[in-house]
Amino acid sequence: MISSVRGTVLSVGLDHAVVEVGGVGLAVHTIPATLATLRRGEEAQLATTLVVREDSLTLYGFADADARMLFGLLQTVSGVGPRLALSALAVLEPDALCRALADGNVTTLTQVPGIGRKGAERLIIELRDKVGSLTPATTVAAAPAADQSRSQVTEALAGLGFTAKQAEQAVESVLADGGADLDTPALLRKALATLGRKR
């Protein structure tokens, strides 16, 4: 998973921004409140989630890791996909959304377009006991940074169509060649370059 991006904002649209990372412009879909904080030509850093579908790779961005975790948690409920989860975060701040789920507040949840009374009740039943775990401490990775980057880049390469073996070999090659101190985006760029040379 690509868990964050940092780079220059190339453009800001109605529902996404394009952030340049290592010479590549990444379209990051996000909510209006987050888009309002971005300025063309300035550097931005967003917590992200890459959603892989048969016909698309879509990157979703968030102001912080808690919002990203809530985005993923919402999608564990049947009938809630990335668009509806993003819509929920667009209408309700993460704190307000967690509070509504914990308190069983159907009225607040139905303010989100696409969530009716039954949908709100299902969200409450399935997530009421889980939202309490959304604290800053849960966002700290247990694995060492190098291991985390390795797994994130391997997953990203697999999402781009490379086999698991190709992805693992490319990442290991970069790490063995002095890339242990690289951050995740830099490691991904080097691994992609390695795979490009092999083609």
Automatic annotation (TrEMBL):
Coiled coil segments of this chain: none
Boundaries of every Helix-hairpin-helix DNA-binding motif class domain copy: 72-91, 107-126
Record key words, sorted: ATP-binding, Cytoplasm, DNA damage, DNA recombination, DNA repair, DNA-binding, Helicase, Hydrolase, Nucleotide-binding
Compartment list: Cytoplasm
Family from the record: Belongs to the RuvA family.
NCBIfam families the record matches: ruvA (TIGR00084)
Role of this protein: The RuvA-RuvB-RuvC complex processes Holliday junction (HJ) DNA during genetic recombination and DNA repair, while the RuvA-RuvB complex plays an important role in the rescue of blocked DNA replication forks via replication fork reversal (RFR). RuvA specifically binds to HJ cruciform DNA, conferring on it an open structure. The RuvB hexamer acts as an ATP-dependent pump, pulling dsDNA into and through the RuvAB complex. HJ branch migration allows RuvC to scan DNA until it finds its consensus sequence, where it cleaves and resolves the cruciform DNA.
Protein name: Holliday junction branch migration complex subunit RuvA
Natural source organism: Allokutzneria albata
